[in-house]
TrEMBL record:
Subcellular location, record wording: Cytoplasm
Protein name: UDP-glucuronate decarboxylase
Organism: Phoenix dactylifera
Gene: LOC103723020
Catalysed reactions listed for this entry: UDP-alpha-D-glucuronate + H(+) = UDP-alpha-D-xylose + CO2
Entry superkingdom: Eukaryota
Length: 338
């Protein structure tokens, strides 16, 4: 029954509403790793009210403990695959497990979160006239045949593999965003996030940086998945949050890659972590999982030109900040192994 109509020109009222100081901002997945850092940054602006919805699958209230009880903050236990009724000006839609071990744990649920969850947030955006930002992923490029990846590349994704619930889920989420934009005039923003690391990652999250740091602190072998020559490019979380906010506040729908172009093999990463935390730990080559992308590095020309954004923190600067956080949580004082 839906009639196709051209996107409306933003009314002066809508436009001024966006720039007026007091915004009510919804962050889905705000109890997670990137979400909680984003909430910190949004809450630091005293004019904003922030509402977080999260089902705590991979996130925790602990990540938000400094804001619980704050008059400008609300935390709602809610699953985005269900209808949500709130009145907001902006939606940062992050809800979705990001670590392969968690998104593969219940793949059907991952697909539902990406597809039905994004549909619901778009329905909400349509009803209240909110601008919505989706945190998509470099995984939409799959095992890329172009290197580095720019936003024009359509990707090389296995539609029926064990990672597809996440990769294809995010691809459909991007499609939904653009269809709501074209069909209903919704203001959308799409960030394609590349591997991000920093304090508050789950210790047993399964992602490579958190694994290596936890393993080094526990004096365990660093598990490099074969062959170890595969590459990733790691962005420090504070830089990521800065990029997401710039994208939301700017004039471009995206998709825009947000990531750090500094590219490392997993073997190089292991050696760097070893050198930093404990040169005596050993590297062990273990079996890899199916469809692991062999290389990944963002082309961030668009982010630089359109958002005036580029990452500042290098891997060697960011890893010690994460180490400090992991030492506190694992209760390993500095003197013990360094
Ligand atoms: P995370 O797992 O720490 O956070 C995801 C949050 O979403 C968690 O708090 C989780 O409980 C919540 N969640 C999951 N399913 C939900 C549901 N159905 N309803 C409500 N809440 C739900 O992951 P993260 O690293 O903070 O990633 C945040 C977003 O960024 C995700 O959308 C992810 O796909 C995207 N992303 C992250 C990376 C990265 O390297 N961290 C890379 C690319 C894309
Ligand atoms: N939706 C929501 N909150 C709202 C408005 C809509 O969660 O405030 C959900 C709604 O349940 C629906 C989805 O968003 O499943 C898409 O909504 P839309 O209005 O675009 O489509 P329709 O309801 O016509 O299928
Ligand atoms: N990896 C590894 N050891 C680990 C975990 C992951 O060598 O303990 C490798 C994995 O094979 C992949 C890369 O690190 O090539 C990044 O994996 P991660 O799960 O962090 O994120 P992805 O980019 O695959 O989503």
């Amino acid at each position: 029954h839906t009639i196709t109509r051209p996107p409306p020109t933003p009314s002066p009222l809508r436009f001024s509403k966006f720039f007026q100081a007091n915004l009510r901002i919804l962050v889905t997945g705000g109890a997670g790793f990137i979400g909680s850092h984003l909430v910190d940054r949004l809450m630091e602006n005293e004019k904003h009210e922030v509402i977080v919805v999260d089902n705590y699958f991979t996130g925790s209230k602990d990540n938000l403990k400094r804001w619980i009880g704050h008059p400008r903050f609300e935390l709602i236990r809610h699953d985005v695959t269900e209808t949500l009724l709130v009145e907001v000006d902006q939606i940062y839609h992050l809800a979705c497990p990001a670590s392969p071990i968690f998104y593969k744990y219940n793949p059907v649920k991952t697909i539902k979160t990406n597809v039905i969850g994004t549909l619901n947030m778009l329905g909400l955006a349509k009803r209240v006239g909110a601008r919505i930002l989706l945190t998509s992923t470099s995984e939409v490029y799959g095992d890329p045949l172009e290197h580095p990846q720019n936003e024009e590349y359509w990707g090389n994704v296995n539609p029926i593999g064990v990672r597809s619930c996440y990769d294809e889920g995010k691809r459909v989420a991007e499609t939904l965003m653009f269809d709501y934009h074209r069909q209903h005039g919704i203001e959308i923003r799409i960030a394609r996030i590349f591997n991000t690391y920093g304090p508050r990652m789950n210790i047993d999250d399964g992602r490579v940086v958190s694994n290596f740091i936890a393993q080094a602190l526990r004096g365990e072998h660093l598990t490099v998945q074969a062959p170890g020559t595969q590459t990733r490019s790691f962005c420090y979380v504070s830089n990521m949050v800065d990029g997401l906010i710039r994208l939301m506040e700017g004039d471009h729908t995206g998709p825009i890659n947000i990531g750090n172009p500094g590219e490392f093999t997993m073997m190089e990463l292991a050696e760097t972590v070893k050198e930093l935390i404990d040169p005596t730990v050993q590297v062990k080559i273990v079996e890899n999982t199916p469809d692991d992308p062999r290389q990944r590095k963002p082309d961030i020309t668009k982010a630089k030109e359109l958002l005036g954004w580029e990452p500042k923190v290098t891997l060697r600067e960011g890893l010690p900040l994460m180490e400090e956080d992991f030492r506190q949580r694992l209760v390993v004082p500095k003197s013990q192994n360094n």
